[in-house]
Amino acid sequence: MANSQSGDSMIDRLVRVLGSFDPDHQSLSTEELSERAALPKSTAYRLINDMMRHNLLQRDPNGRLRIGVGMWELSNRASDAVDLATLARPHMMAVHDFVGENTQLGILREREVLIIERMSKPTAVVHRSKTAGRLPAHASSCGLVLLAHAPKHVREAYLRGPLAAITEKTTTDPAVLRKILATIRTYHYAELVGHIDDGTTGIAVPVFDGTGLTIAGLGVVVDSEHHVGGPAIMQALRTASAGITKDLEAQGKSVMD
Questions:
Q1: Which of 56, 75, 94 is at the close of a domain?
Q2: Averaged pLDDT, 5-18
């Protein structure tokens, strides 16, 4: 793959272009994309035109650039995360119908939780997680469930930081987090109030594959003051998690292999 004068390859530049889009920047002008991808405007224009020809990028009615349908097609062909989300969806729907707010499924990626499936309603409490979006693992209930059940060296590497505060309630003390993770490993659930968004509560349980490995966190985000009772939510989540595990066992392997 040919390199640019700056030494980065075409793949490097393509990845930077695609990585410029995130849940907070779902559409970009050409100039914004050039700046976020750290590319000269002439290079950005050439890449954009090439990517649009292959439907990897497209323009919305306002002329702004978005990820194209061709990228969506490619990402949905062989992703283990997509397979897991598809398998989990019926079980998540049962939780969603019961809670009536936000239900989400996340996996651990580096220092963040990647949300691979999310269900919500117009009347649900507003919060910042989105499908294909990421959250700091230490600040989210799904993230803490995943960290708690991760290998010790993964937990300790994470606790070495940085541990940014999202709200004033976000726990950033490694010693306190270590105790929280130990409690989660004992009781197999996490409950956080106001750690990501004020006025919301996140509750999550681990999802195990057919071999007993924790592969995801299944959680809800609800209004801290107005929601169905915590024990009832917990039971709904655990029932759904067990259903996902049963389906994975029926397949005879983990979809996240």
A1: 75
A2: 82
